[in-house]
Amino acid sequence: MEEKSVVLETRQLSVWYGAFRALRDVDLKVKRNSVTALIGPSGCGKSTLLRCFNRMNDLIPHSRVEGQVFFDGVDSYAPGVDATAVRSQIGMVFQKPNPFPKSIFENVAFGLRINGFQGNIQEAAERSLRRAALWDEVKDRLNKSAMTLSGGQQQRLCIARALAVEPEVLLMDEPASALDPIATLAIEQLIRELAEEVTIVIVTHNMQQAARVSDETAFLMADTDRAGYLVEHGPTSGIFTNPKDERTEAYITGRFS
Q1: HSE-CB for 22 with a 13 A CA cutoff
Q2: Beta bridge partners of residue 230, listed in sequence order
Q3: What separation in angstroms does the CA of 159 have from each of 99, 146, 214, 237?
Q4: What is the pTM of this model?
Q5: Rounded to the nearest 5°, which phi and psi values hold at 200?
Q6: Strand 228-235 and strand 74-75: pairing?
Q7: pLDDT at 257
Q8: Is the pLDDT of residue 144 over 80?
Q9: E-strand spans in 51-102?
């Protein structure tokens, strides 16, 4: 089986919020067209690490990044790199569905318009809704408000919105934690389907979910100063059945949280 190439990589990555160090010296490689789960106790820097990949931390006052974050071999934080261009290639889906107060169609079309899309917006929107497994449920009410959708449908709409600009990578910060079990299952199935064409990095507190949806898992912890660091990273099957570090095993088996 051919080894997948690396699309994202961090080298000695540290993140500061003012005087507080949120991440310490993280080295991580994310493989293309795979699902990588970030797991670990609350406050260990999982979401901070996720936001580093598309420079969302730039938007947080007094934040500072040290080290390097490579996307397709280019340091995203190098001088002259356009953060907006990075974000157009690395989409983000948040914990709580956040559709715009617009129609279902306009939610998907919005990103296309602001990125100067020159093609057929109708076709592109339909393609994105199909990829997000939502088209059949909304095709007859595209002009209705996105707020009329259920929570699970809203989250899939947000995924469709992110997919519309054809990103290489999709970051997901606990995308199913606010959803019921049926909607959660739909999101998990969608993640597995999308991984055939998009690289996905997902933060989750749900161990069963990480085991179900991811190809690789990275386990983080926080040190005594509350700075997050990477304990172990590898194929999910190995992390969950034969972890190399006893701290990983203790977390996965629920001996500490």
Answers
A1: 21
A2: 220
A3: 10, 13, 17, 27
A4: 0.95
A5: -125, 135
A6: unpaired
A7: 58
A8: yes
A9: 63-71, 74-75, 90-93
